[in-house]
Amino acid sequence: MVMIIGADEAGRGPVLGPLVICAACFDEFNIDKLRSSGVQDSKKLTSNQRESMVKIIDSFLVDKEIVVFPAKHIDNSITSGTNLNQLEVDGFIYAINSILDRGNIPDVIWLDAADIDEKRFQRRIEAGLEVDVKIIAKHKCDETETCVGAASILAKIRRDQIIKQLSSKYGNIGSGYPSDVKTRQFIKDFYKEYGFFPPFVRKTWKTMRNLEKELDILPPGQTRLF
To answer: pTM of the entire structure?
Structure first.
C-alpha cells in the first residue's frame, strides 16, 4: 500500500474560537475515489456539502490526527513570543508525528503552506518530524491535492462543531471572523453585560484593540481616553 498524508488548518484568522489542524492519511489508490466523490477544498463547499463529505472521507481514511488550539492557548503563545506561523508549525508537526508514531509511514506528505515562504514552512516541518519523509508544501494546496482538501474539510468540520457548541451556550456568536457584524456585536454586548471578554476570544488580535476603543476601554496604564 502506497500511503499519502495531507495536512491543513481551519480558523487561522478568526477572533473567536480555536485554530484547528488536521493531518489525514490515505492509501494513494483511493485518492481518485475521494476526488470523484466531490472531496475538495473546504472553502469551495457549503456547510451541508462538507457534512456529507465526512462519511466518505472516513471510509477511505487510514489514520488521522486533529489538533485544536483554543483561543487562550493562541494568546499565551503570542504573548510569550511564539507567532502564529510557528504555532501552526508546531501543530502540523504534532499531528503528523502522531500518525507516524502509529506506524503509518507515507511516501509523501502534502501541506497547505501556512507561511508566505513555502520552502521555509517545509523546512520547519521537516526539522520536527521523527521520520525522514518526502514533504511538499504549497500555497493553496487544498485546491490541487485531494488529500489536503480532505484534511481541510475535517479541520473545518471540527472548528464548526466547536463554534456551534459555543453558540448553543452563549447565543449567536456569528462565524467568529473579524468582518462578521454579528461576531463583533456579540463581543461588545458580552463585555457590556459582564465587564470582561468571552473566554474564547483571541485577546491579542488587532480586532480587539479596535473593539476596546469602541467600548472606551483604556489601555493598561492609561488613565483617560484623551
So the answer is: 0.93
What is the C-alpha separation between 141 and 7, in angstroms, rounded?
Answer: 9
d(CA 165, CA 184): 18
Query: In this predicted structure, what is the pLDDT of residue 31?
Result: 95
Taking residues 154-180, what's their average pLDDT?
96
Q: Within this chain, do residues 44 and 74 fall inside the same structural domain, yes or no?
A: yes
pLDDT at 45: 86
What whole-number distance in Å separates Cα of residue 183 and Cα of residue 190?
Answer: 11
Domain presence at residue 222: no
Q: What are phi and psi of 195, to 5 degrees?
A: 80, 10
Do residues 156 and 149 touch, judged by C-beta distance below 8 A? no
Give the chain's mean pLDDT: 94
Helix (H) or strand (E) holding 142: helix 141-144
| Boundary (domain end) residue, out of 150, 167, 184 | 167
Which H or E run contains 125? helix 118-128
**The CATH number of the domain where 191 resides is what?**
1.10.10.460
What domain range is 207 assigned to?
Answer: 171-214
